[in-house]
Amino acid sequence: MMTVLRGIPGIDVVVEFDTESYSPRLLRDHRPRVLLMDLDSFDIGDLLSRQLVGRSAEQAVKVLALSANLTPGTAIKVLLGGAQGFLHKDTPVQGLVDAIRAVDRGGVALDPLVAGELVTALRYSGPSEAPSGPGDGVKLTPRQRQILGLIGHGLTNVEIADQLQLGRPTVKTHISSLLRALDLRDRTQLAVYACMHGFRAHAAMPLG
């Protein structure tokens, strides 16, 4: 896979490692923008909790997880663990490249096979499966609900700004307000929250 990616314009493979050669220094020294992580070899909870979650936005590494085990439960664990994407490890090269670029832009990438199952599982699961937060008692403005819905569909800030004809700083301000109001950590948790609480339907609703 890495050999193929090295030949893709705009993608620079800066470091490779396995469970035996991994060291936190590799991430510090090479500072990759996107980390492709094989969940069948690494424990995502272990790596994310030790190295990625809690780092500043300037230092954080965006994680795109790969696995042969695509289940809603694994997807929830991956996303709530701090990853921005979850794909089958046999995803075609172009699909992988598109996902890498989407994650690098700040979007969320989910394998189509698991996306529908994940939404269904979140819709009918209990509160314990949802990101922590104050829940349905929080009062959101119509615009916040609309933006939350678009995040649930995986749109980036730029795409949201274009679709709603808003300035990018305005979209960023709304997202910051959503994170504070819902007591969530990042836009990935916002995306899961949007699916869990039915906000995706608000994405297409006109205001006023």
TrEMBL record:
The keyword Phosphoprotein applies. GO terms for biological process: phosphorelay signal transduction system; regulation of DNA-templated transcription. Keywords: DNA-binding, Phosphoprotein. Pfam families: GerE (PF00196). GO terms for molecular function: DNA binding. CDD domains: LuxR_C_like (cd06170). It comes from the Bacteria. Residues 133-198 form the HTH luxR-type domain. Residues 1-104 form the Response regulatory domain. The modification 4-aspartylphosphate is found at residue 38. InterPro entries: CheY-like_superfamily, Sig_transdc_resp-reg_C-effctor, Sig_transdc_resp-reg_receiver, Tscrpt_reg_LuxR_C, WalR-like. Coiled coil: none annotated. This is DNA-binding response regulator, NarL/FixJ family, contains REC and HTH domains.
